[in-house]
Amino acid sequence: MNGESGSRSVGQQTSLRATLAEMAEILERARERLRETGAEGRRLDHAAERDDHTLAIFQEILSVPPLGLPPGELFALAMDRLSRLLAADRALLFVLDEATGRLVARSARGFRREDVEALALDPGEGLIGRVFREKRVQTLDAVAAPEVDPFIERFPVRQGIAVPVRTEGEVGGVLFAGRRALGAPFSATDMLLLLVIADRVGSALVHQHLLERHGEHLTHLREARALVDEQRPGREPRDLLARACEAACRLPGVRAALAVAGSDLASITAVAGAGRLRSVGPEQVDPGDGLLAEGFAAERPVAIRDLRGRVGDRAGVLERDGLRAALLVPLRTRGRVLGLLALADVEPREFSIEEVEFALTLATVTAVALDTRRGLEDLRGALGEQAALEAQRAEGEKARALAALGGGLTRELSSIFALLLGKSQLMLARAQDESLREGLGALEEAAWRGTDVLQRLLGLAEADHAVGVSCDLGAIAQEALAFARPRIGPGASPGGRRIEMTADLPPTPPVHGSAVAFREAIVNLVLNAMEAMPDGGTVAVQVREAGGGVELVVADSGRGIAPDVKPRIFDPFFTTRPGHLGLGLTVVQAVVLRAGGRLDVQTGPGGTTVSLWLPAERAREAAVEAHHPAEPALATAPEPAPAPPRVGSILIVEEEEGIQAAVREALDAAGHRVETAIDATTALERLAMGGIDVVVTDLALRDRSGLQLAAAVKERSPGSAVVLLTGWGRRLHEERVRGAGVDVMVVKPVQPERVRAAVAEALRLHPPA
Predict the structure, then answer these.
(1) What sign for the dihedral angle of Cα 373, 375, 377, 380?
(2) Do residues 554 and 522 make contact, with C-beta atoms less than 8 angstroms apart?
(3) Which H/E stretch holds residue 212?
(4) 416-468, pLDDT tens digit by residue?
(5) What is the band of 729 on the pLDDT scale with cuts at 50, 70, 90?
(6) Pairing of β 302-304 and β 325-333
(7) Sign of the CA dihedral 515, 594, 398, 560?
(8) How many contiguous H segments (helices) and E segments (strands) does the chain have?
C-alpha cells in the first residue's frame, strides 16, 4: 500500500509540472500576443495621429492665399510647415528665367544664401532639369541607384524628390526636397503634399506674371495720357514729334526713333529723332529713301525684323546708322497721312502686339495734335479778321474755335465708340451668361456716355439750336453732384482737408436742352469749386425759379479768383492749375449760351459764386415758334417698328474695318444679302453690274465724299436707295444732303437696330423691282 501510494504521488507531481509548464507556455503566448496587440495599437494610433497631422497641414497650406504672396515667400511658408512631416532638411524652388532660359533658385531651405544666389541649371541637366523638361515627378535614391548629377554632387542628399511647378499649362519651375539622412522613401502622401505646394506656387507665379503685365500696361497708359496732356496745339511740330520719339524709345525699349511731318518724303515740314537718331535733321532724310516711303504708303504699321534682308533698296537714314529692326507707323488722321513714326533697334527683333499697338497709339495722338495745330493756325487767322465784331459774336467764334480744336480727336474717337457700341450690342443679343451680359451692358453704357460727350463737343459752336428735351435742372444737378464727389475723393479736398457739400434743389419749371450737356456743365462748376479750396471749405449748390426761368448757383468758400486772371477764365486752354486743359468754363459758357441762357461769375476773398440762368421751356418754345417756323426735316433712321421684314441686296461702302464688320453683321442677321467696298470707285464698279437695292455709305471716303457717291448712285441707278452714315449729325446742311440723293441718314455711333431700321426704311422708299 505504501509503495503504491508513493508511486501515485510521484506521477501526480510529474503531471502537475507538465500542466504548469503548458500553462506557462500558454500564458507566455498570450503575453506575446498582448504585446503585439499593444504595439499594433500604438502603431495604429501613431498612424492615425500622423494622418490627422498631415490633413491639418493640407488644410493649412490650402488656406494660404496664393495671390497675396510672392512665389518664393509662399514656398518658404509652406516648407516651414512641412519640414518636420517630410523630414526634409533641404528644399529649393527653381523658376525659369525667360531672359536666360535657365532655371534659377528663387527660395531655399537648408542652403547657404551665397550658394543659392549663384545657383542656375540648364533644362535637362540632372534631376531638376529632367523634371522640368519631362514635366513629371521624379525621385532620387543616391544609395540604391547613384547617378551623375552636378547639383546632387554639390549638395548631397540620400533621398530626393522633384515635382514640376505648372503655370498656365506650361512648366514654369521645379520644387525639390531632399534628405541628407537615410530614412524611409518618400511616400505617396509626401508626393501629394509637394504637388499641392507646387500648385500653389504655380498660381502665385501666374499671378505675379499678370501683375507684371498689368504694371506694363499701366505704364503704357500713363505714358499715353502724359503724351496727350503734353501734345498741346500751341507746340511747334518738331516739339510734338520729339515728344513722340522720346516716348517710343522709352516704353518699347528701342534704341532709336524718328518722326517726320509731311504728306510724303517730298513735302517734309519737320523732323525729330530720339536715341541714336536724335541728331537727324530734314536735310538727312533722302526723298528717295525706300524704307520710309514704304511706311508713308502703308495702311497699317509695317514691322521688319532685319533690314539687311531687304533687297534692292539703297541705304536710307536707318540703314546708314547701322540699325537692323524697324517698325514704321504712318501718322494718319481723318483719312490723311500727316507724317511717319519709325522705331528702330540695333539688333534683329520681333515687335510684339503690345509694342505695335502702343506705337499706333503714339502715332494717332501725334497726328491729331499736328492736325489740331494746323486747324488752330487757320482758326487764329479767321479770328483775327473778326476782331472788330461785337462781344457776343466774339463769344460765338470762341465756341466755334473749341469745336475745331477738338474736331480731329473727336472724329477718331467717334469711330472707336461706334465699334464698341455695335459689337457690344450684337454680343449682348447673343450672350446668355448673366455676368457677361452685365459686363457688356456696362461697356455699352460707357460707350454711350462717351459718345454723348463727343457729340456735345462737336455741337458746341453750332449757329442753330440743337435738338433738346425737357429737363429737370434740379434732378440733373443731383446727378452731377453724385458724379463729381468721387472725382476728388469722398468729402476731401485735393489737399486732404474736409469739404462739406450742401444742396438746395426744390422742384422748378423744366428747361429745354441736352441733359448730358447740362450735367457736364454742372460737374465742371462743382469740380472747379472743390479745387478752389485746397484747405477745405463748403460748396453750396442751389436751384431756384427766377425771372421766367431757372437759376442754378454754385458757391465756394475758397480764396477767389485773382483780378488779373478773371478776364481770361472763359478762354480756351487757359488754366492756372497744372495738369488741366483749361476747357471747363469754356464748355460751361458754350452750353449756357446755346440753351439761350446767361452766365455770371462773382468772386472775392471769401469765395466765388457762379450763377447760370436758363429760360423755362414754355418761354423758350414761344420764342422759337415766333422766330423759327417749323421746316421739313431729312428722314433719319426710324426706331424699329413691328413690320413684315423686307430683305434686299445691300452694298456697304466703309473703309474702317471695324465699322464695316459691325454694319455687315447687323444686316446679315436681318437676312439681307450683303457686299462690301472700301471706296467709291470700287462701289460704282459693283453698282454697274446691277442687282444692288441699297447703298450704305460713310460720309468720309478715301477717294470722294459720301455725298458725291450718293449723287453718282442716283445718276447711274435711280432705283437704288442711299443710306448715309455720319458722325456729324445736324452739322450737315439738310438741303445739301437731300439734294445729293441721300434717302436715310444714320448718325454715328452705329447701332445694329438703327442700321437695320434705316435699311428697312430705304427699301420701303425704293422697293426692289
Answers:
(1) negative
(2) yes
(3) helix 188-230
(4) 777 776 777 678 777 788 888 778 777 766 666 566 556 555 544 443 344 46
(5) low
(6) antiparallel
(7) negative
(8) 21, 23
Q: What is the mean pLDDT of residues 366-381?
A: 80
CB contact at 8 A, 406 and 400: no
Give CA angle at 631 (629, 632), nearest 5°: 160
Asked if 763 and 694 touch (Cβ cutoff 8 Å), the reply is yes
- Are the beta carbons of 586 and 398 closer than 8 angstroms? yes
Amino acid at the residue 644: P
Q: In this structure, are residues 301 and 342 in contact, taking their beta carbons and an 8 Å threshold?
A: no
CA 180/CA 150 separation, integer angstroms: 16
Sequence-ordered strand ranges (E) for 226-357? 256-261, 270-275, 302-304, 325-333, 336-345
**574-613 pLDDT, tens digit each:** 777 765 656 677 778 878 877 888 888 998 888 999 999 9
**Residue 459, C-beta contacts closer than 8 angstroms, at least 6 positions apart:** 403, 466, 594, 729, 730, 731
H/E segment holding residue 612? strand 607-615
> What is the pLDDT, as a whole number, of residue 705?
77
| For helices 584-594 and 391-430, angle between their N-to-C axes, nearest 10 degrees | 100
Closest CA to 425 of 172, 202, 756, 41: 756
CB atoms within 10 A of CB 38: 10
Burial class (CB in 10 A: 0-12, 13-18, 19+), 499: buried
In this structure, how many other beta carbons lie within 10 angstroms of the beta carbon of residue 348? Answer: 13
Type of residue at 389: L
Q: Are 727 and 418 in contact (CB under 8 A)?
A: yes
| Structure confidence at residue 725 as a pLDDT band (50, 70, 90) | confident
Amino acid at 71: P
Q: Quickly tell me which residue has 541705304 as its cell.
A: 315
100: closest CA among 115, 122, 126, 130?
122
Neighbours of 334 (CB within 10 A): 13
Residue 376 to residue 475: CA distance in whole angstroms: 37
What is the DSSP secondary-structure string of 35-73? HHHHHHHHHHHHHHHHHHHHHHHHHHHHHS-TTSS-HHH
DSSP letter for 625, please: H
Distant-in-sequence, close-in-space partners of 513: CB < 8 Å, separation ≥ 6 = 466, 468, 469, 471, 591, 594, 595, 614
| Mean pLDDT on 363-391 | 73
pLDDT confidence of residue 286: 87
Share of the chain above pLDDT 90, in %: 14
Query: In this structure, how many other beta carbons lie within 10 angstroms of the beta carbon of residue 573?
Result: 16
Cα separation, 418 vs 754, whole angstroms: 12
CA gap 724, 634 in Å, rounded: 11
Question: Which of these ranges, 17-26, 538-547, 663-672, 736-745, has the smallest mean pLDDT?
Answer: 17-26
Contacts of 214 (CB under 8 A, 6+ apart): none
CA–CA distance, 663 with 423 (Å, rounded to integer): 10
Cα(653)–Cα(709) distance, integer angstroms: 10
Task: Verify cis geometry, omega within 30 degrees of 0, for the bond prior to 749.
Answer: yes
Task: Confirm if 101 and 123 have CB atoms less than 8 A apart.
Answer: yes
Residue type at 353 in one-letter notation: I
Distance of CA 47 to the CA centre of its chain: 55
Cell of 664: 455687315
Residues facing residue 160 across a β-bridge: 140, 178
Query: What pLDDT is recorded for position 393?
Result: 55
Give me the residue label for grid cell 512648366: 171
Whether the Cβ atoms of residue 379 and residue 304 lie closer than 8 Å to each other: no
Measure the CA–CA gap between 591 and 609, rounded to whole angstroms. 18
Measured CA angle at 215 (ends 214, 218), to 5 deg: 85
Q: What's this model's pTM, rounded to 2 decimal places?
A: 0.33
Q: Which residues pair with 174 in a beta bridge?
A: 94, 164
Q: What's the CA gap between 568 and 564, in Å, rounded?
A: 8
